[in-house]
Amino acid sequence: MxxxxxxxxxxxxxxxxxxxxxxxNSTDNGNSSIADNNKTxxxxxxxxxxxxxxxxxxxxxxxxxxxxxxxxxxxxFTNVGNEELVIRDVKASCGCTIPxxxxxxxxxxxxxxxxxxxxxxxxxxxxxxxxxxxxNTNPPTTMLTFRAMVMPNE
Length: 154
Description:
12% of the residues lie in helices and 41% in strands. With 154 residues, it is mainly beta. The protein has a domain at 53-151: Immunoglobulins (Immunoglobulin-like), CATH 2.60.40.10. The relative contact order is 0.20.
């Protein structure tokens, strides 16, 4: 019984010794973050290597529109990251909303846009809709919203 205890203890100490070298070699006491690890092969001096949206605005108010009216708004953005921004998908919260977007990669520093069309047919009253963008950004999803007061047909 004592022999098994000693064998287990020795094995445990051996494993613990091996694992001591498994930690980080960093000298910053764990204060770094993934965001601080900002160098990439294509831009080794980058401060912000990930693509990033900077929208002129993420909310829009169409104000008062008449039921049945179709309206559009263009959400313009700049890629403020240091890598190409690729929009993978754009989904609307409702079938009455149709998004269109740049399918090409947006180089760092370049501008792009997402156009949202809203069909108010059969939608009287206050409306609030969202559009979710999925891209190679961090975080990977970005929300755009719009509102409208749809005046009912008489």
